Amino acid sequence: MKQQMQMIGQAMLVPISIITIGSMFMGLGSAFTNKETLDALHLGTLLSKGSVGYIAFSVMKATGDVVFRNLPLFFSIGVAFGLAKKEKAWAAFSGAVCFMSMHFILNTLLDSQGITAQTTTADWLMKNQQLDPVSAVQKASVYTTELGMFTYRMSVFGGMAVGLVTSWLHNRLYNVKLPLVLSFFAGTRTVPIVTLVVGSLMGVALFFAWPPIGGMLASFSQMIGSSGLFGTFIWAVADKSLLPVGLHHLITTPIRLTDLGGSMDVCGQLVSGTTNIYMAQLGCEETPALLVRGFQSGRVVIHFGALPGAALAMYHCSRSQHKKVVAGLLLPVVATMILFGVTEPIEYTFLFVAPWLFYLVHVPLTGLIFVLTEMANISIYGGCLKDILPVLLQPNKLNLWGYLWLIPLFFVIYYCLFRLLITRFNVMTPGREEEEASEEEIKLFSKQDFKNKAGEENSFARQIINAFGGPENIVQFDNCISRLRVEVVDASHVAADDVWKKTLRAKGVVHVSDKGFQIIYGPEVVMIAGDCKELLGDA
Questions:
Q1: Is 317 a known active-site residue?
Q2: List 98, 317, 384, 480, catalytic entry
Q3: Rounded to two decimals, what is the model's pTM?
């Protein structure tokens, strides 16, 4: 069960990968088509409405809008693709077929009951059903339009449900055998046919089941909204605690993209999920300020203050003869974290050399950071320069003053606390090896060092496959943004953790189950996994 949940979390990264680019396009496009921003930057004349530059940024904004308007479809395709074991292209196609079938049937059934886009607006409900404004908005929020079809507002949940059902059917039917007369429809062609029918049945079932579910989600989102700072703390702790097992996406994605993150009227349109609200607010000239309780602002304190403080503590705790090597190891990691938000190299260092340092110190401090940023009314989207740079172009919508004291405060707290704990409990962070340790032993993650030691006859990818016991011992081989995720036949044939860390330059090893492994490599894992898949014949 745990392995399956991790695979679901991994599959969710497929559609999530496009959100980053979509948010950048939306942020930049919105900034340079916003009159107030252009006036503040004295670009009103250069980028006047109708000019080539204005049109270019309008296209950029629309490109980002494509992503956020069609996330449910992207999730249905991406999850089906990510969880398919073979013939992934057919799984993705089948996911799209199932998604459209489900929503078209819902559209048909709703129309048969006289429920349309015109009869579910808040104004219509207040006028014709005498509902109060809050009840009218809550009832109207149950409905939306997907690909031009009026349907229930199931958001990313609907897309994920379609993706999960499609992948389950695909993995059982992609190689099905049929009688000779029906052989044209056998194998992979069977899957979209079946999902067309299953999608219709899902539409019929959800026509009756979704109203109470939608009402429950609306109530739950209200509970999150009313839970205050305690709820923020619990969410942040859960999110960080699940990072090592790769399930944090199951916590963050619903908050970011569904009703669980709350709903808000932005420029006359109801928007659900914190990320969607942020993007809508960036694109709305009438919005005076960004969302405060968006579960994002604490990441800036962590990336710019807390973890750099921990990195400095690691440097000062290293032996004098190793400090130069440790500095060369940590500086790129800190720069990458600030620029792109990749925290795993530092967090996993603590996680694997001293798990208690991660769970008993870093995790609760993370919860405290998110609480304090919310108390300071900080409003910003993103947690690294890549994300926040477009937002900074609309300074009139931001409140960043709290960072002036929170970032240096937690830099000092992490530096002092981690330096004390590392020395007090002799935590073996990089550079604290014995004095006779060679420079090569500290540069465990150097690609060039490995190439110098590796024989030309065997590629790095081949050594990784052999470390898993060879192709015949690998049941499933995949990756997320930072680690290999592999299921094997016999775990006794897998190399020891020390071999992965010292010889194969892994940053850490997670034993997910008796037969499941995660090997952490950081951002370069995409290239490593591609080479391995090519050798395995799965590319």
A1: no
A2: 480
A3: 0.60
